[in-house]
Amino acid sequence: MHLPLAQSYATLGPQFFRAQPAEPVAAPELLLLNEALARSLTLDPEALKSPEGLALLSGNEAPAQHSPIAQAYAGHQFGGWSPQLGDGRALLLGDITTPEGTFDLQLKGSGRTPFSRNGDGRAWLGPVLREYIVSEAMQALGVPTTRALAAVATGERVQRERAYPGAILTRVAASHIRVGTFQYFAARNDVQALEALTAFALKRHYPEAEGPMGLLSAVVAAQARLIAHWMSLGFIHGVMNTDNMAISGQTIDYGPCAFIDAYHPQTVYSSIDRMGRYAYDQQAQIGGWNLAQLASALLPIMGGEEAIPEATERVNAFRDIYQAEYLARFGAKLGLAEPTAEDLSLVTGLLEIMATEQADFTNTFRALTEGHNPLPDSLAFAAWHGRWQALAPSLDLMKQANPALIPRNHRIEQAIEAAVAGDLAPTTRLIQALATPFDPPEGTEDLRLPPLPEEEVQATFCGT
Which pLDDT belongs to residue 274? Predict the structure, then answer.
């Protein structure tokens, strides 16, 4: 199948990637196709459903114009330095330019690459469906995010704790350049590559910015806005390694991610985050830490040690941008169009009450939006509620900031369990309902409910 794909990233030079085809799969079957996204990419959904389209989405055929590539990058993983990571189970098919911009198309789970280390390069159905469901829900919630174009079953089994059905996700992103991409070349003292990568990133994402300092400031601002948005929705990324922070400011790599049910600021879902490094209330701090690593990687092309004071100042701008965005987001959730610094105590006061009462994060804010009392037995909440009401909050503003539906962990796990057994109906129902999270469709009241004790999901996992 011919797609209007370029391979722009490959023009940077051979040290940036390894070119190779995907490993063919036995019996590909199209499970999910995001037809609206396909059309926005100027692609024909019917062509993608054809045998030729399925061959492309499964990796059984490469684009006609060029080979797919695995991108090289490094990164700090849970604070530990890994000098070479790279796409170990993904291949960039190429990029497509539309009236809305240029977007990468990438296959995840397409087989081994030179960066696979000891992995098999494959994905099983569960993580593929999780990323499809959550990334499309994030899009509907207005959060900058990578997107899911298609999910394909491979007809093969993938061995993890046991044998699972294999699958491949087609991911769409503004680009797949990460903080770790810059770190990869900085660690190799490859100044030429850093300069080329910076020019590429500026042209693709921030054409109004100038030079590496301009890129740093733009990424700092984008990430501050992104993480504040996560926080306002109770979203926990779960694995904020530097190789999982996109230069574009999009949320990328939905592994052990989750939305909080009963609120607690130290909530962790990731099964491997035993120290709480990436807990809900640590995300802003880690975002700043990651951006400091980006600044360090850019120093060789910013003037070396002489540039440290200015680079530090630009990284430190993260805090003020984040706090302003955090206040604006949570202010909107409380119906305050122009919240002031004094209103921050109203936000923190509610969150403290919610933590004490183990109140559901999403449903508490939604109940306020719908005029209900989410905590009728709490005297502390009654006092807080009086203070809040005195500010004459705007319900219209709240309706735009407080979703009724989020992709709850237990619902995702139930959908995955059904899909493994051959039933995609719960998955498609979730995807359809989550497409309008602020105005939920009729018949989705059950999807608003927090998990029963026996339904709670305590841990999520990285491995695709």
Answer: 82
